[in-house]
Write a structure and sequence with these properties.
alpha/beta; Rossmann fold; 7-stranded parallel sheet; 16% strand; globular; binds uridine-diphosphate-N-acetylglucosamine; EC 2.4.1.227
Length: 366
């Protein structure tokens, strides 16, 4: 039995790789004990317990770049968080601490280093996050998903594993029937899945909102994930069309079923969404979030587009052309097959297992 802390979060793109690593460590030995450390009030405090793990919240927050005065309380929050992680590590006595990026992994990994607990970092993106860069110097291993990460991290610590994806998403092909039942949709009709990352995407939502009628009149049905801010408007649109052909939800917990039902996908280009689309082998139109740090979502998307494994629609053009492109792609069977074939070559189904094995090597002093 080993004891492992996994820390970080803030968005689904940090939380779900963390859950995938936890699941792998449990699959290797069900007596392994996993404790998550997140940030109070953040998404992980709700999603991690739903995935079956215990989580402790730190009173930490990020730097507010638009209102510097709001940062006055930060040093106190950091000190309180460090003190809390000190207590957590002393009580739980982990063999290793894993950081997946996001506010909470900073104090947790700093304290782990201070108390002599070895650490591993998992970086999801082609551009390293601030927290991960900071805690990388003392980490034993850094598991990455993109090439050329030596520009951010010490070369000798980097292991190229890909992003760990939850097990249920690794196998979707056999779940089609169950998926259509779950979403109340017609298994005979072409299905578009619209996902805006873990928080929903405004531009994608507005484009779908304006084009919903066109999609339906072109014989498509839609699974539409909106995020919390757009759900009421989306529900009203669906009601006013009086259609049974749209399933709408602010968040989808059963992403395996959503991928299983989908013939094609519209998505942001967050790192985990991209990794999952590769595994699910879905023809996709990506709309990268242009304000992501260093425009990393465009880089994520281009790694697919460059090998003809996905289409890209720029955020600024999405309101005008996204729905037309969806209809065009849905009508082009040969292109859908080609995209599906190309995207699957980029999948990394063993990432979770490889990261879990790196974790165990660290614990065993290898
Ligand atoms: C706005 C922002 O900062 N986005 C970043 C965030 O994206 P974001 O949190 O949107 O993350 P990703 O697109 O990488 O992953 C989303 C994750 O949430 C899951 N999911 C999503 C919607 C849903 O209804 N249900 C569900 O379970 C997906 O299956 C996936 O596992 O983290 C990513 C990984 O660090 C980055 O690449 C993104 O740039």
């Amino acid at each position: 039995m080993k004891k492992i802390i996994i820390s970080g979060g803030g968005t689904g793109g940090h939380i779900y790789p963390a859950v995938a690593i936890a699941n792998e460590l449990k699959a290797i030995d069900s007596t392994n004990e996993i404790l998550f450390v997140g940030a109070e009030g953040k998404m992980e405090m709700e999603k991690v317990p739903k995935a079956g793990y215990k989580i402790i919240g730190l009173p930490i927050a990020g730097i507010n770049r638009s209102n510097m005065l709001a940062n006055l309380g930060l040093p106190i929050k950091l000190i309180k968080s460090l003190w809390k992680t000190y207590r957590v590590i002393k009580d739980f006595k982990p063999d290793v601490a894993i950081g997946v990026g996001g506010y909470a992994s900073g104090p947790t990994l700093i304290m782990a280093n201070f108390l002599g607990v070895p650490t591993l970092i998992q970086e999801q993106n082609s551009f390293a996050g601030v927290t991960n860069k900071f805690v990388a110097k003392k980490a034993q291993k850094i598991c990455v998903a993109y090439p050329n990460m030596e520009q951010f991290f010490p070369k000798e610590k980097i292991v190229m594993t890909g992003n760990p994806v939850r097990k249920d998403i690794l196998e979707t092909a056999s779940k089609r029937e169950q998926a259509f039942k779950h979403f109340g949709l017609d298994p005979e009709r072409k299905t578009l899945l619209v996902i805006g990352g873990s928080q929903g995407a405004r531009t994608i939502n507005e484009a779908i909102f304006a084009g919903l009628n066109d999609l339906i009149s072109n014989d498509l049905q839609v699974i539409w994930q909106t995020g919390k801010l757009f759900i009421d408007k989306a529900k009203q649109a669906v009601e006013s069309l009086q259609t049974q052909r749209v399933f709408v939800s602010d968040f989808i917990y059963e992403m395996d079923l959503a991928y299983a039902a989908a013939d094609l996908v519209v998505s942001r280009a967050g790192a985990l969404s991209v990794s999952e689309l590769c595994l699910a082998e879905k023809p996709s139109i990506l709309v990268p979030l242009p304000t992501a740090a260093e425009d990393h979502q465009t880089q994520n998307a281009m790694s697919l587009v460059n090998v003809k494994a996905a289409w890209l629609v720029k955020d600024a053009e999405a309101r005008d052309i996204l729905v037309d492109d969806v209809i065009k792609l849905a009508d082009n069977k040969a292109e859908m097959q080609q995209l599906s074939q190309n995207i699957k070559t980029l999948a990394k189904p063993n990432a979770g297992k490889e990261i879990a094995s790196e974790v165990l090597k660290i614990i065993n002093g290898q």
